[in-house]
Amino acid sequence: MAIISSRSNDRIKAIRALREKRERDSTGTFFVEGHRVVHAALQTGAVIELLVVATDRLDDTEASLAEALDEMDVPILEVTPDLFDVIAFREEAQSIGAIVRQRTEPLEAVAESRRCWLVLNEVQHPGNLGTLIRNNDAIGGDGVILMGQGADPYHPQAVRGTLGAIFSQRIVRATPKELAAWLPNSGCTVVGTSPDGTMDYREVDYTSKPVVILGGNERIGISAEQIALCDHLIRIPMAGYVESLNLAVATALVQFEVLRQREPATP
Amino acid sequence: MAIISSRSNDRIKAIRALREKRERDSTGTFFVEGHRVVHAALQTGAVIELLVVATDRLDDTEASLAEALDEMDVPILEVTPDLFDVIAFREEAQSIGAIVRQRTEPLEAVAESRRCWLVLNEVQHPGNLGTLIRNNDAIGGDGVILMGQGADPYHPQAVRGTLGAIFSQRIVRATPKELAAWLPNSGCTVVGTSPDGTMDYREVDYTSKPVVILGGNERIGISAEQIALCDHLIRIPMAGYVESLNLAVATALVQFEVLRQREPATP
Prior knowledge:
Two copies of one chain form a homodimer.
Chain A: H1 10-17, H2 21-27, E1 29-33, H3 35-43, E2 48-54, H4 60-71, E3 76-79, H5 81-87, E4 96-101, E5 105-106, E6 116-121, H6 126-138, E7 143-147, H7 156-162, H8 165-168, E8 170-173, H9 176-182, E9 189-193, E10 199-200, E11 211-214, H10 224-229, E12 232-235, H11 247-262
Parallel strand pairs in A: 2-3, 5-8, 6-7, 6-11, 7-8, 9-11, 9-12, 10-12
Antiparallel strand pairs in A: 1-4, 2-4
């Protein structure tokens, strides 16, 4: 098979088109870059539709990953290093990428909860969304439930920020109405973070049931409707001049409090 | 005094020039935007050299802040709303800003420590640096010690990310050599975060002495020289697929553990 070097090649154009949400939505796929994320796709059983490699620049890690996928009969597109750099969204030189099928689920598919769901409402920045997904993975959480018209979890920057958690975490879409119907029957403790919260986030019992954390977005907190759904409205005590934390940091503190209670330190 | 509307005005050009590090360095000043940050400058006794207001668009909060600064004889430059938007780095419409004197200190100026210093080595992104400074304020920390050629804390994006903590936190510059000389005599417990860390970050005693947290940057951890300076090399236990957290999140978990031990929750 010839190594492709032209950016006017139709398959190259199709890959680059996946930078646009419209194209990702219509194909139900997205493009991931770097051996770490491709490896995560492989490990979690994601459907890899096409592997793209800069054959002449593969390092050992990338080459053995490509080999593993080749043995699984994943189609492989070989490109020149220069062309790979044209395809890649990230600046750093990489040599392996893949078109992978999205696997967003509806809320009704969520039959049970193990530890922690994170609900996000119209998060604006793909990078923030990626970090939030990554952190929910880091504590062994179940997944992320997305509402509204926020950033796309399959945006290249979001995917990059997840460091592979885009595959290990369940990605669920729900409307506020669906969420309101699901939460009371979810068997979960529902907490929302708010500057008006009354309960110290460390005082909630996160162990007797799985947890749902209701997050806002970068600019506004959770809505009145969501507050009404919370078992506890929590706050994060601070001791300085500033009055708030950014979304990913505030959420991470609650997420890691869930982990702390469920997996206490063993000295 | 006339309201300035032209971007070719020399003072307007001088303000816009402060977007460049070279200009910030040579003047020893920086430009801050929004009533929150200007208010922080006022509250913390920063030297405000010039107040800039879009007179015709001031809301009540901004107007009373401008009045307070006027009473302190701070020079005021009045501009049109359109021109203010040209000056402003942030997209959201605001109507008050100020040129403020930088107050970076050398390490030798640090005579004592109350609670927590954060040491950062060549953090790349101004936004990350801003968040890290903000978080150190949130726990009642002392300040941030910056090494190397990383992002400038007075970059507009960094300042924005601090939400005013650029003024409430001490900003210190040090070389690795100066830090190595200072740390053993600082009277502080020195911890460094590392994937190779051996001690659970929650198991360190952060109460008997003030704490110094040694952070890396976004891409590489702390150096071998810095590891040698640590009393404890700590790790953050995780329970998912991903193997690391981003810099601001990992650091925030350690920072808030310091706060947790020093100001336990009171139910």
